[in-house]
Amino acid sequence: MEDLKIGVFICNCGTNIAKVVDCDAIVDSVERLPYVTVARTYKYMCSDPGQDMIQADIEEHGLDRVVVAACSPRMHEPTFRKTLQKAGLNPYFLEMANIREQCSWVHDDPVAATEKAAALTAAAVLRVAHHEALERRSVDMCPNTLIMGGGIAGMSAALDLADAGNRVYLAERSDHLGGNVARADLTAPYLDSARDMLTERVTRVVEHPNIDVLLESQVRKVDGFVGNFQTTIRGKADDGAPTDSVYDVGSIIVCTGYKEFDASRITHYGYGKLPNVVTSFELEKMLRAGRVTTKEGRVPQYVAIIHCVGSRNLEFHAYCSRVCCMTALKYAHEVKSAVPGAYVSDIYIDMHAFGKGMEDFYRRSSEIKTLFLMYEKNDYPVIRKADATDDCDMLIEVNETLSGETIEMPADLVVLMVGMEAREDSEEVAHLVNISRDKDGWFIESHPKLDPVATTTDGVYIAGACQAPKDIPDSVAQARAAAARILARTARGKIEIDAVFAEVDEEKCSGCRMCNELCPYVAIEFDPEKRRSHVISALCKACGACVAACPSGAITARHFTDKQIFSEIEGVLA
Amino acid sequence: MAIRANPKLITELEIYGAQDVSKCYHCGNCSATCPFSKEPYIFPRRSMRSLQMGLEAKLESDLEPWLCYYCGECSVECPRDAEPGETMMSLRRWLTARYDFTGISRLFYLSWKAELLAVIIVALIAGAGFLLYGFSQGNITQYNGPDAFLPASSIHIFDWTLAAVLLALLLTNCARMWWFTVGRDTKVHVPLSAYVRKIYLLPTHFFTQMRYARCEQKRPWAIHLVLMLSYVTMLILIMFFLAPMWSGPAVKWSVHVFGLAATAGLLVTTIIFLRKRLKKSEVQYQHSHETDWMFLVLLIVVAATGLVQFTLHRLGLGTAANINYVIHMMAVVPMLLLEVPFSKWSHMAYRPLAMYFADLKAEEMVSKAREAVGAPQAA
Amino acid sequence: MTFEPKIVGFLCNWCSYTGADLAGTSRIHYAPNVRIIRVMCSARIDPTFVLKALHDGADGVLICGCHPGDCHYSEGNYKMMRRYPLLKSLLADYGIEDERVRLEWVSASEGQRFADIVNDMTERVRALGPSPVKAALEADLAER
User: Fold this and answer.
1) Domain boundaries in chain B?
2) Which of A115-129, A523-537, B249-263, B276-290 ranks highest by mean pLDDT?
3) How many CA within 13 A on the CB side of residue B25?
4) Interface residue A348 vs chain B (CB under 8 A)
5) Is A372 close to B2, i.e. CB distance below 8 A?
6) What value of ipTM does the predicted structure carry?
């Protein structure tokens, strides 16, 4: 190997790394490694002065490889690759050592942490020596977008994309647009009509020349990669028979929403047994019809609303479904409006009034004389039928924590605020577009704080309740954020895709074809004349399955070659 | 054992003055700021809570509303404007109505018209009665002496009869109060010896209002004390010194000086309170129930006619004095017969009793708690 | 001086490496004995990596991938699942104890689980003592 000049830059990350890891000690240890020309530390390597420092060193010392020991490469690899590029160096001559997320943040023994950080940095130094210059490929970006789900999120994203002049295919499984918002009467906290909100959206979507609304349609297959997806959608032909069509899109937004928790799973609320125990959605139906009555058709004198049904419950879902508290208050207002003499009680654990106008809404709800009863998590109210002589239909026993008493609250109608759950088809959807789900079934975003709409699959975005329980403002915000991300790409016309893919060395290939079957993307084709296999680089996603399997060792994974990984192993064990 | 909640109760309490209690979200600032709120009597939040949920039996047995003197600090601190001070006041009104076995109190609180009508009827009956009596046996021009229109001895008998009636009514209601708050409490059992030992608390609280003095603001206690002592002075003079009071037209300074001082005290304090209520100058005067006005108005009429009485008598204007006296009694009789047992005035009995009972119960609860943890009993 | 095992971890980028990062952002502490090498998919892991690590002085090797069914590349982890028993039986033939090489599935949201696995494996390998490979190589070198 020719004489390399490796620069090693160790970040303090303020005190995040420096508090536990002795960065100067790492400088000392790496200086002894082969080819290391420069080794220094800095407070915040990702900052402008930090990057300028790297650039200056590259130019001054003629560095041809750079190691940055800092945060996770999933955080800043793109940042530092750009730095190299600006300094005239191929961006793939960078290697990062993760000494923050996987070192200083998880270990408390400074000696052990420093030793580990030094080993990880050494591994990066040995690896980077074997890096090769790689060029990113530029491919056309198809400006069309497929949006899965025609609810409030799907429609909002569709409108932004279509207004910008791009074609949108809006695929909706059911026979109407509007999703779960269409089942609501009014919305919290300002009591605006859901119908008015939706009508505006639906009308604009249906009339928009750039949006193809595909009702009763399901996405069956997604092939291709970012900028170049081929999506197969099964819809209904005019004669009612199922028919498949293929649409070329550059991006996909998943807006499949949520389903509500099945209240009959909680036996002590008597849902399904006591006729006047209903769910929030069943109440919405009554409210939309303008009449709130018991099953027997009587006007209820006492209405009770119970929060956290299926949510914040270790037995079912530990998470909070976010929207139910304010929706419950909305019901207090609507019931008082529909039945002016009714006594409304709201039985809750905590009042989550987190957003704009919500704390005020809570105050207004108490001004209309809603009685708030607080129970402790895991100490659930129990509903039983009242005696015939009582003036109510049911009695709810609550261990009320604001008073410390156990009370029985009369109720003629009980509304259960059922939580949000991931839809049953979420697993199917996740596999279709190659995204992951968390333990509760919600789709996982790229970064919980900094990248809430992208996913690990480039070109696929998520928006709305399918990512996590959220209300209309947040769903719309996410949807429009996803649209904005896509527009940023379509505006450029072309996108760069990673230079990392697998390559077959035809000299070494024996034509055994073992790799052909292994590739999940069918990216390896066999040339029967040459009797050699060949990777279609555009389709290859660089998983490395074929690389490890090839008995001749004929396939190399760019940027993850055997030599590079072997050097890493040597480095960590030095 | 679960207590049945009754959400309808707050609708009833609205008429007693508690319109804002639903706004309370139990932050507890009120109980924290209250200078009197201390174990085992924490208020006003707990009372607000019982009221919101309509726990009638519990509220009926609570002493907390009487331990409150409406300094108004809680209402000032309340972030939701739930008016805890006024809620406690309305609970006092409600309890007054509850303690009363006749149902008249409840009627007066729910309908100010009923109260006014009752006052007017009683006043008219009293007026007619005195006039009839006077004409039947005396000369309207004679104030005192053998031919007096309304001789002191007769008035004395009337006063004592009236006192007996009102005492009977009041004491019955006090007994009911005892039953609700102490007697039927299965958890706290106060031994008879404690009642005897602590009996001194009753006159102490009655005459000094010492608990009121512990409020942050001393002025209200001072004004109220003057009002109360003036009233008590007047009562003693009327009940035990009627004849010397009636004497004249020469001034009998040994008696009349007290009378004048008491009248001055009554007039000045009631005028102060009326002004405060009209101007809504402080927190506790922001809300006034009809019973609050009725109380002050009757008192001021009684005091004013009393002063006029004294003046007319000194001037020797017999007829005028007699007529004024009838008017005076037309205010006194409804005040004593209706206000004292059935309306706001009853607090003069309920408050000292509440202090007494609260002390007895607290002592009993503390000694039980000490027993439970094996700590030595208080000396 | 307690024996501090050196364990090499091969983590797939999409699930387990991200899960390990999550343990970091959540500040979940665990033993410092595992040094992580990133690969794109557990399918990339050639059995020679494991052998190389043991040869170079590792006392243990931890392989992490996505839960079956959740692989970012659809089936990569199945390939690792198929290679693994073969690898383990080879290692057994070499006299390398079973608990030194371990395959675990860690998802991107399982920071705590990753920490628990590292802690558990560190203790197990510690109990086994230094890898027999080191001693064998030294003996071999001495002989020559």
Assistant:
1) 9-99, 104-362
2) A115-129
3) 15
4) no
5) no
6) 0.96
